[in-house]
Design goal:
mainly alpha; 415 residues; transmembrane helix; transmembrane; 17 helices; DUF445 domain-containing protein; membrane; DUF445
């Protein structure tokens, strides 16, 4: 056997191989001893002699067959022996093809993924113990180590060289229109409108003189100043009353007018060529402004600092929220059959794609590894794993040979 570096499992295999070789050899020696002891004897001994003779033939034939797989029997260069050392490359290619066709095919792997209930097991794992906490902690450690390595120069180069030019070329008007439409349909803008009305009312209430400065110069020259002040006061009161009505009434016509305006804007951004063209022109001016890249880099730097602080704090809202999300996902994967089916289907499709695209490269590890082995080393490794079971061929050959020899001798005597 070629010199190998053996682990604990290999040492156990080698002991098993040697033990079964000893058993097979012992049966051969026993058959030979019986043959010698019963040679030229008559009566029932003749039957035992014939059985032992056939047992030796069967044992030697099967010994030759098993040995010929891994080496030349007795060191003799007999044709078609030492099959593994001399044909290991072609055997590796055949094994690779067998695995590809029968185990690593897209259909087999995808079906296994669908029936393995991966999503349910993942759900149970996430919901059990502190696995979610471990995932968040490991993820935080990884992200926390990676974020500081992203320098401002690298981010700025990416923003100016890739991000902004891509957004300039990409039509964003339909996306913006769909976003505005979703906001209007969900009423998400109402809170912002409420805030604007509150701020507008407070601002106008504190800036009556500014209103007078705007309205006063527009009064007729012949109008007395006290009349102008009365007019400004009336406009101020009416404007405040109108803002208060809009602020306090959720069904005010002005609110419905804003809803219609935003709805029309959303439709125009998606379907009106003139509006879409104006939006794209405005977008291009904004994104190509010299300060845009610096502004986005500054925003990223602030976000990165905030992320690092949150990630490094075990009690931060971000980490607590991440743990809760994983726990909730684990519960849903256990209890929501529709979600489990969808996840299992997507997982099967993903694994199927990997197998379809990279299966050949994955399985090529078999042939590449075996081709790097020395012929004798390959034979020694394979024999170490299957040699023990192959010794049963020798044992069975001895037993079956004895039975066949006995039957043949019995028939010949009857004839």
């Amino acid at each position: 056997m070629a010199t190998l570096t053996l682990g604990a499992a290999d040492l156990v295999r080698r002991r098993g191989l040697r033990r079964m070789r000893s058993v097979a050899l012992a049966l051969l020696v026993l058959a030979a001893a019986i043959y010698v002891a019963t040679l030229h004897r008559t009566g029932g001994w003749a039957y035992l002699n014939a059985a032992s003779e056939a047992a030796m033939v069967g044992a030697l034939a099967d010994w030759f067959a098993v040995t010929a797989l891994f080496r030349h029997p007795l060191g003799l260069p007999i044709p078609h022996t030492a099959i593994v050392p001399t044909r290991k490359d072609s055997l590796a290619e055949s094994l690779e093809q067998f695995v590809t066709e029968n185990f690593l095919s897209e259909e087999v792997v995808a079906e296994k993924m669908r029936t393995a209930e991966i999503s349910r097991r993942v759900g149970e794992w996430l919901a059990d113990g502190n696995h979610a906490e471990r995932i968040v902690a490991e993820g935080a450690r990884t992200v926390g180590a990676a974020l500081p390595k992203l320098g401002d120069d690298d981010v700025a180069a990416f923003v100016r060289g890739s991000l902004l030019p891509r957004f300039v070329k990409e039509p964003l008007s339909p996306i913006a229109g769909h976003f505005v439409q979703s906001v209007v349909e969900d009423g998400a803008h109402h809170a912002l409108f409420d805030l604007l009305m509150v701020e507008a009312y407070d601002w106008l209430a504190d800036n009556r003189d500014l209103l007078a400065d705007v309205v006063g110069p527009r009064a007729p020259r012949w109008s007395p100043q006290w009349v102008d002040r009365l007019v400004v006061d009336r406009i101020h009161r009416e404007a405040l009353a109108w803002l208060a009505d809009v602020r306090d009434s959720q069904t005010h016509p002005a609110r419905r007018a804003v809803d219609r305006l935003l709805g029309q804007l959303a439709d125009d951004l998606q379907h009106d060529p003139e509006t879409m063209e104006r939006f794209e022109a405005w977008k291009a001016r904004m994104l190509t402004h010299p300060d845009m890249g610096n502004s986005l880099t500054a925003v990223w730097d602030a976000m990165r600092t905030a992320l690092i602080d949150s990630i490094n704090d075990p009690n931060s809202t971000l980490r607590i929220r991440g743990i809760k999300v994983l726990h909730d996902l684990g519960d849903r994967l256990q209890n929501d059959e529709t979600l489990r089916a969808r996840v299992d289907t997507r997982a099967a499709e993903a694994v199927g794609y990997v197998v379809r695209t990279y299966g050949t490269e994955i399985v090529s590890v078999i042939s590449d590894t075996i081709e790097r082995w020395d012929g004798r080393e390959a034979a020694a490794r394979i024999e170490l794993h299957v040699g023990r079971d192959l010794q049963f061929i020798r044992i069975n050959g001895t037993v079956v040979g004895a039975l066949v020899g006995l039957i043949i001798h019995t028939i010949s005597q009857l004839i």
